[in-house]
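re: the backbone from monday

yeah here it is again, tokenized this time
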């Protein structure tokens, strides 16, 4: 039995097929362009490599409520051609197999729970910090969603007294993504994060906002672990600063596991999303999760 996965990111798509042991036997990377160019390639890939079920983690916002008319659609997005695009219905029509449809951060969170840093945990948050900021939430072993999927990247932040950066989010001046994602880092420093030295004081500012998000998530969700992924979060100097700022901001109000075991790097690295997609495809067949299927 073969399983398929799609990690549909704003910059690139990863397509993969794996066997019953989740060993990847075929894989392809595609630059994210417009859907009319990409969808025939995606459909051809899974036609050439037939699968029993497919898991998709997509950039958003997306429709995740099966009771709503926009279920399976990519909703408002500045990416050309993708706004209001029926991603899931298009693949349903072409492949006619069970499909698990969710966000890119949710599949990464699921992958980390079953095969990464959060193995053995049933309640966790996976945060990706890169071009944008998003988070997948696992509650009691299940991907959490309500009327929509959570948008943790748009949590409003309490800014540092001497931080007058206006933010880059067109919706919220001082949301987490607007002041701490990759474009915000470049805008406030005049250069991308990869070009900022490790000892630059800016990283303490970045850590403060990411730690504040961890405090908010700790107080609202009480997860067993918070896992960070994404290009910005992979900066080696950042994690100790986040942990230190988290301790200061939480100020001992609630108990958490030791911070080195509570706020951690993704164990699967850049493969968290595609591994999670494959695991969710397998779960549809095994019926081990309550997944919306088609």
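seq for it, each position gets an aa:
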């Amino acid at each position: 039995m073969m399983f398929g996965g799609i990690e549909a990111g704003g910059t690139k798509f990863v397509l993969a097929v794996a066997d019953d042991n989740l060993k990847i036997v075929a894989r392809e990377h595609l630059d994210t362009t417009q859907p009319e160019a990409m969808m025939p390639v995606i459909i051809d890939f899974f036609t050439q490599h037939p699968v029993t079920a497919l898991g998709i983690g997509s950039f958003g916002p997306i429709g995740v409520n099966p009771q709503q008319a926009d279920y399976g659609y990519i909703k408002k997005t500045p990416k050309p051609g993708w706004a209001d695009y029926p991603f899931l219905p298009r693949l349903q029509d072409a492949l006619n197999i069970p499909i698990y449809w969710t966000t890119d951060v949710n599949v990464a969170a699921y992958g980390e729970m079953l095969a990464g840093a959060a193995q053995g945990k049933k309640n966790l948050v996976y945060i990706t910090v890169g071009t944008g900021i998003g988070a997948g939430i696992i509650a009691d072993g299940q991907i959490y969603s309500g009327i929509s999927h959570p948008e943790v990247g748009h949590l409003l932040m309490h800014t540092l007294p001497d931080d007058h950066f206006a933010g880059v989010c067109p919706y919220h001046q001082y949301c987490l993504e607007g002041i701490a994602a990759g474009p915000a880092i470049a805008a406030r420093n005049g250069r991308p994060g990869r070009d900022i030295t490790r000892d630059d004081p800016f990283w303490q500012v970045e850590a403060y906002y990411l730690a504040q998000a961890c405090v908010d998530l700790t107080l609202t969700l009480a997860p067993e672990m918070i896992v960070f992924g994404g290009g910005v979060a992979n900066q080696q100097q950042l994690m100790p600063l986040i942990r230190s700022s988290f301790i200061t901001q939480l100020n001992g109000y609630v108990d958490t596991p030791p911070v080195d075991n509570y706020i951690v790097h993704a164990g699967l690295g850049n493969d968290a999303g595609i591994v999670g997609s494959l695991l969710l495809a397998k779960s549809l067949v095994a019926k081990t999760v309550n997944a919306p299927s088609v």
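The beta strands are 3-8, 12-18, 24-31, 53-58, 99-103, 124-129, 133-139, 142-143, 225-229, 263-265. Residues 3-104+270-286 form a domain with the Nucleotidyltransferase; domain 5 fold (CATH 3.30.420.40).
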